[in-house]
């Protein structure tokens, strides 16, 4: 995911490892989605914890479920391509999220994906990736 983002990593420790052996860091990223914008369909390789700092985020999940998250709320994004989702800003002010995840060094924060079967492909004028 792109857009206006700031990433912070904690100091590395040689003994922190994923079970596969890849070094990991706890990463915090601020993501902004402008009014009318969206993330595009994507998924994450590791679970993420997100806090909505401002605005209202509308998430469309892989099964068609719609979840609305307002300022001050939080949610967890499960890992895996089976959890493809799309985030939209349907409001009039930017959505700002603070997202935290344990990622291997240089691992992508999100991976683009096709819309799930039966879902509408993303046609947002601006994307955060």
Describe this structure in words.
The chain has 129 residues and is mostly beta strands. It has one domain: Jelly Rolls. 0% of the residues lie in helices and 43% in strands. The protein is built from no helices and 10 strands. The strands form 3 sheets. The chain has a 5-stranded antiparallel β-sheet, with no helix packed on it. A 3-stranded antiparallel β-sheet has the order 6-5-8, with no helix packed on it. A hairpin with a 4-residue loop joins strand 5 and strand 6. It is globular. About 5% of the residues have low confidence.
Secondary structure topology:
Layout: E1 4-9, E2 24-33, E3 42-43, E4 48-54, E5 56-61, E6 66-70, E7 74-77, E8 85-88, E9 95-104, E10 111-112
Antiparallel strand pairs: 1-2, 2-9, 3-10, 4-7, 4-9, 5-6, 5-8
Output the keywords.
129 residues, Jelly Rolls, three-stranded antiparallel beta sheet, single chain, mainly beta
Compute the number of structural domains: 1
Tell me roughly what share of residues is in helical segments: under 10%
Average pLDDT over all residues: 84
Name of the level-1 CATH class: Mainly Beta
Strand sequence of the main sheet, in spatial order? 1-2-9-4-7
Radius of gyration: 15 Å
Largest sheet: 5 strands, antiparallel
Given the C-alpha coordinates, what overall shape results?
globular
Order of helices and strands: EEEEEEEEEE
Number of helices: 0
- What's the CATH topology name? Jelly Rolls
Distance between the termini: 4 Å
Secondary structure category: mainly beta
Compute the number of strand runs.
10
CATH 2nd-level architecture: Sandwich
Q: Beta-sheet strand percentage?
A: 35-45%
**Name given to the CATH homologous superfamily:** Jelly Rolls
Q: Uncertain spans, ≥5 residues at pLDDT below 50?
A: 13-18
